[in-house]
Specification:
Distance between the termini: 48 Å
Number of strands: 19
Number of helices: 10
Radius of gyration: 21 Å
Length: 380
């Protein structure tokens, strides 16, 4: 049965929407989460949680569970074939979590959902939000079932093509890059490193190779025209053209694949009265550096705290959230943009690029600064 009212309605039950709901429940708030899917997505785009995000998620009580289910990696490297251009280590970072956690997005969502259920919350499925009305003292969300939920605040966590953002009159301008992105989860007989995330700057283009907890690997490649259903031969070509040379990794299975365009966009504002944006509804960018879900999860925890204060009668923290979270999104988008552009300089320039990176990559300050940028705390 659809409730008639709630203090907060969260639209979207991805990791960001679930994290907002968990945070609100921990504050003792009445929250309703609605999602258009009949069940949680069984595909995965995001697969890494960075150190700062692990710190932030401690507040939700899920960090230990995520680390236990994930694969801890202390090393990240920028490579050209077998040559390491920039080694990046996380082991010496000033944090209790000096590593990245490799974990598929569906697992992260399941951990957050279970935590929400522990706290007495749930997700209403499948319901699409089709209408939004704001009044001086609240808002109303209309669902495709015809039901209306009265609420104090609405969180748009419904992705890049957010219905709630559009209904609230908020804009998310930006660019769509010409390149498309190919994601392929594979198994190999041998030949790929299991102890690091590798970013290959090859003559043919960028390739990210990331080990996953079940022994498989995630390949991410920026290509002119990614196939809708990548097969084994395609994955093998990616590794042969862009990956390590001496080990000759052999692909034995393609588990899953996907494609999408790279968008670089950030909302003009994160707040319109009673509506707040979070996650991909507020920002989207190249996956270079694995920052997207991390940024969204940090949005979620900050927003849950701000909403709890607003429900106590002081909404000043909502404006602080809207401003500070947008500032961080601009920084992260800039980092991802620079990595993407660096990976896609003209082919004739790539040997020079690699030579320069190899030179500056030997400097400890460069390695430390890059590690802190990726980890999420460049100011420390």
């Amino acid at each position: 049965m659809t409730p008639k009212q709630a203090e907060v309605v969260v639209v979207g039950a991805g990791p960001v929407g679930l994290a907002v709901a968990v945070g609100l429940r921990l504050h003792g708030r009445d929250v309703v989460v609605v999602d258009r899917q009949a069940e949680g997505a069984n595909t995965s785009r995001a697969c890494v949680i960075h150190p700062r995000t692990l710190e932030v998620l401690e507040q939700l009580g899920v960090t230990k569970r995520l680390v236990d289910l994930g694969l801890e990696l202390e090393d990240f490297s920028v490579r050209a074939g077998d040559r390491k251009l920039i080694p990046v280590g996380f082991a010496d970072l000033p944090t209790a979590y000096p590593f990245v956690t490799m974990i598929p997005q569906p697992v992260t969502e399941q951990v957050l959902l279970e935590r929400l259920q522990e706290l007495g919350g749930s997700v209403l499925r499948p319901y699409a939000a089709t209408g939004l009305a704001q009044t001086a003292d609240g808002a109303e969300i209309t669902l495709d079932s015809g039901d209306v939920i009265k609420t104090q605040y609405v969180v748009a966590a419904d992705g890049m093509n957010s219905t709630i953002r559009e209904l609230a009159g908020l804009r998310m301008p930006g660019n769509t890059l010409e390149l498309s992105l190919s994601l392929v989860d594979i198994r190999v007989a041998s030949g790929l490193p299991t102890d690091e995330v590798a970013l290959y700057f090859a003559a043919a283009g960028l390739l990210v190779v990331a080990p996953l907890p079940d022994g498989s690997f995630r390949l991410v490649a920026e290509v002119p025209d990614a196939p809708e259903h990548p097969d084994l031969a395609y994955a093998q070509r990616l590794l042969a053209d862009r990956g390590p040379r001496k080990s000759h990794p052999k692909v034995t299975e393609v588990i899953w694949g996907s494609r999408f365009r790279i968008h670089e966009r950030v909302a003009d504002r994160y707040r319109a009265g009673r509506v707040l944006l979070a996650g991909d509804a507020a920002h989207t960018h190249s996956p270079a550096g694995g920052q997207g879900m991390n940024l969204g999860l940090r949005d979620a925890v900050a927003l849950a705290d701000a909403l709890s204060q607003a429900l106590n009668g002081d909404d000043a923290d909502l404006d602080v959230y809207a401003e500070s979270s947008r500032e961080e999104a601009v920084r992260v988008i800039g980092l991802a943009h620079r990595l993407t552009r660096l990976a896609n300089v003209p082919p004739a320039v790539r040997p020079v690029r690699n030579a320069v990176l190899s030179l500056i990559g030997r400097v400890g300050k460069t390695q430390d600064g890059f590690a802190k940028q990726l980890a999420g705390f460049p100011e420390r």
